[in-house]
Design a protein that fits this description.
2 copies of one chain form a homodimer. In chain A, a hairpin with a 2-residue loop joins strand 5 and strand 6. The two termini of chain A are 22 Å apart. Chain A has 6 helices and 7 strands, in the order E-H-E-H-E-E-H-H-E-E-E-H-H. The first copy, chain A, has a single domain, classed as Maf protein (Alpha-Beta Complex). Helix content of chain A is 32%, strand content 25%. The longest helix of chain A is centred in the first third of the chain and has 16 residues. In chain A, strands 1, 2, 3, 4, 5, 6 and 7 form a 7-stranded mixed sheet that branches. The model of chain A has no long low-confidence stretch (mean pLDDT 90). Chains A and B meet through strand 4, helix 3 and helix 4 of A and strand 4, helix 3 and helix 4 of B.
Amino acid sequence: MKILFITGNKNKVDEANDILSKLGYRVEQFLLDGQTPNFIEPQSSSIAEVSEFKIQQALELISGTTLENHALLVEDSGLFIESLNGFPGVYSSYVSETIGNQGIIDILANKSNRNAEFRAYSILYKDGKYYHGLGICSGRISFQIKGLNGFGFDPIFIPKSGDGRTFAEMNEEEKESKSHRGESLKIICEEINHPSK
Amino acid sequence: MKILFITGNKNKVDEANDILSKLGYRVEQFLLDGQTPNFIEPQSSSIAEVSEFKIQQALELISGTTLENHALLVEDSGLFIESLNGFPGVYSSYVSETIGNQGIIDILANKSNRNAEFRAYSILYKDGKYYHGLGICSGRISFQIKGLNGFGFDPIFIPKSGDGRTFAEMNEEEKESKSHRGESLKIICEEINHPSK
């Protein structure tokens, strides 16, 4: 089955496809006339709210088109740093593009608590039903930028369940086994295969 | 004439009222059933876009009610730091609430360029017409948090046109004479009094 992933981030599509292809799904980027539609992302403190908002816009947009019968996937994710009251949170991609990894390290220079969480909230819409998955990966912010894989804050995030390397120092398989995005998608797959309600 | 200011920030209402009352307007906070309506602020890199979005929502909301004949004011503003690619920009209030003034000073610790701009984009809707005003105040980020007046990033912003004090070290009158918000409102007033088109 084909799943259309509503995102402007090609890295996310690849990551989702790696995970879901093992379960028999093929993930492609959602495009209209060859472009990612310009969705409104609300300023909100909740990744769940941002995801809900995006899927509703997408459903309105495809209503009555040939895309109507496809499964749709949206995801919103962010890095939540404990000592910074959850910053950069839902604004992670903006913060990543402006102050970047070094900016985060600089803000934390004088903080002893470096705990952080990556969170992803995915929603799959399929055959008139919604499937939700929240994935959380606990860890800490590194003192230095390390590794070249991944994207966003991967080079400064050390997952708790690892061996001290950042996400960007891991290969795709290792990262996917621990990642928040992977977890959120696996929860959705379980829900589809074993519906509880 | 009464102007209803759509904002959750009471400080902004007071500041606008100080400026506009001299021109014969009375500014009050826009409330529905005693509360600020929960508007969606889009994630966008433009304060003009955020303002446009807010006023359209407000107009939809009051359509057909007794508020329909009042003038409406919206404003979006932010601090744009040159060496941080415009960060925190449209997300200023979120960044102020999470990493705060000290966070900004910490990110800039190793930067020699401390230039920044405060920008405000106001839109007034009155008698079926829209009046737009962009106000910009150039300055730099201080090395220390200074002063107790104002709000948000006022204690770390030193306007270029001043004497080295931060906005938070100035009294209301001094700040209003230089402020981005003041300028954006004055532009709108001029436009109302001397329509060019």
